[in-house]
Structures are given as structure tokens and as C-alpha cells.
Amino acid sequence: MKVLSKKPEHKTHLAGNRLVSKSHGRIAFRGMIDVLEAEVLEAQVLASGLGEEWYCTCLGEVLDYLRAIMIAEVKSEPFPSLKLFGLALDEIHQQSHDVKAAFGLARHPLPDQSMGPLVARINYLRARVREGELLAVRIFGRLTGRRQDLITAMNRLSSALWWLCCKKIAATP
Fold first, then answer.
1. Which of 50, 66, 107, 110 has a CA 20 to 30 Å removed from the CA of 143?
2. Position 173 confidence tier, pLDDT thresholds 50, 70, 90
3. How far is the C-alpha of 118 from the C-alpha of 1, rounded, in Å?
4. Within-domain flag for 8
5. 57-100 confidence digits (pLDDT tens)
6. H or E element: which one contains 76?
């Protein structure tokens, strides 16, 4: 075993003292979560600036959820059973697919600029989370039985952000 006096710049710690290339899939996934955390924080600032404190609080829950994903991945621990916005994740998932029953919306909405900056930003976050989910599938999906919890967590987060969009759209005159 080779002992290094200094960590090479192109390497990073995967777990413990195990060094891997910064292009390693798990490192890429962690980077995506880091970017999503920053983007959610920007959305929180927008919501607060618009006086949308309930949405700001909900986005804070999304930020905590992303941090829980990061912790579960880094520590190789199971993703915990969490709620968002006071609802079970499966309930959010179901409501996000039945917007008529959940929000009174006649059809699945197609976000546009008339829905305002908060819907636009949350929809952007939803799309970015979907990218993260696809990355998780590419990285963890090929490892039989590994990290299905993180793939599901990303899918449910996408549903939760769509749920927030629909809630805001339904509340907008």
C-alpha cells in the first residue's frame, strides 16, 4: 500500500482514507447535491423577497432533505423516512400526479411566465432534481440493489417540488 504525503489535486476522499478520482460517480452525485442545495437557497431568498414565507419555509425543508441525502450517501447509511410540508412522501407523490383532486386544477399545468418568478424558480429546481435523479440512476442503478433509496429519494423530491408548483399555481388568481 502506497502512503502519500500529500493528496493529489485530482483525487478526493470517497470514504475514510480511500481516495478516488474526482470524476468518480459518487463524487459527481455529491457535487450535484451540493449545487442543488445552493439553488434551493437562492430560491428561498427569492421566496422571502416576494413575501412568500410559507414557500420559504417549505424550501427550507427541501434544503434539509437534500442535506439528508448527502449524509446518507457520504456515510453509506439508509436514507431516513422523512416528511415534507407535513405530508408523507408517498402522499406528495400521489397528489403530484392527481392535480385535479389535490389542487382543483383542471389539467396538468404547463408552467409559463405568467405564473410568476416563484413558480418559474421552483419548476427549475424540479427539473434540476430530475437531472440529479437521472445521475443517481446512472451511478447507483448499475450496482444491483445499491442505493435504490437515494434514487427514490430524488424521485420523491422532484414530486415534492412539482407539488409546490401546483400549490402556488392553484393559489394564484
1. 66
2. low
3. 53
4. no
5. 999 999 999 999 999 999 999 999 999 999 999 999 999 999 99
6. none
Q: How far is CA 48 from the centre of its chain?
A: 20
The answer to the question of residue 112 being in a domain is yes
- pTM of the full predicted structure? 0.89
In 3D, which of 54, 42, 64 has the Cα closest to residue 121? 42
34 in a structural domain: yes
Cβ atoms 157, 62 nearer than 8 A: yes
Contact between 105 and 111 (Cβ < 8 Å): no
C-alpha cell at 44: 428561498
Q: What three-state secondary structure class fits 156? A: helix
CA–CA dist 17, 119 (Å, integer): 43
Cα 122 from chain centroid (whole Å): 11
Which CATH number fits the domain that encloses residue 32? Answer: 1.20.1200.10
Domain assignment of residue 93, yes or no: yes
* Nearest to 156, CA basis, from 123, 129, 136: 129
**Structural domain count of the chain:** 1
Cell readout for 149 is 433509496
Q: Which three cell numbers stand for residue 20?
A: 478516488
